[in-house]
Specification:
166 residues, alpha+beta, GMP Synthetase, Chain A, domain 3, SH3 type barrels, five-stranded antiparallel beta sheet, three-stranded mixed beta sheet, 8 strands, 28% helix
């Protein structure tokens, strides 16, 4: 993550946490009029509502107007990470252990940059464990992960359903 994104994340995170949510990812995309995308959810990983996204957007917008970390005009987008969410924090890999994920690395490990398999948690607080095809276990250094996300499966859909459905 570059210093600019870290600065923006440092500006918005306290307000989002004070509202009872967590920042999943902060990303800036686009050129002349960039989009600042903020993904947030609850501490237990359950998705937030559209109204809660709007509430976060209003709060964050006010903070960003004061701090002004982005030069010129930009679009602010606040969203839930969705069911097939990005995995951006070590705790995401722990929480979603047992589910399928796709992980892209910055540098090749054993000649591969892309891994798919079942998450098996985190080892030594710094290596993501993944069971790939054939039952082989791989340890991927968290700092070397460029992108990771859950794979949409029936098991993930079932686990993502609200608990109180009648």
């Amino acid at each position: 993550m570059d210093a600019h994104i870290r600065r923006i994340e440092g500006i918005v995170t306290p307000s989002i946490e004070a509202m009872g949510f967590e920042v999943v990812r902060v990303m800036v995309t686009g050129g002349q009029r960039p989009t600042l995308q903020i993904m947030a959810d609850r501490g237990d990983g359950t998705m937030i509502s559209v109204d809660e996204c709007a509430e976060i957007s209003r709060t964050v917008s006010a903070v960003l107007d004061v701090e002004d970390p982005i030069t010129g005009e930009y679009t602010l987008e606040v969203s839930s990470p969705g069911i097939d969410r990005p995995l951006t924090r070590l705790k995401d890999f722990e929480r979603w252990s047992g589910f399928d994920a796709r992980v892209d690395m910055d540098l090749a490990i054993d000649g591969r940059k892309r891994f798919s398999g079942r998450l098996k948690g985190v080892a030594d607080g710094e290596r993501v464990q993944l069971e790939v095809e054939g039952g082989e276990m791989v340890d991927l250094p968290f700092e070397g992960i460029s992108r990771a996300k859950l794979v949409l499966t029936d098991a993930l859909l079932e686990a993502s359903r609200p608990a109180a459905q009648s």
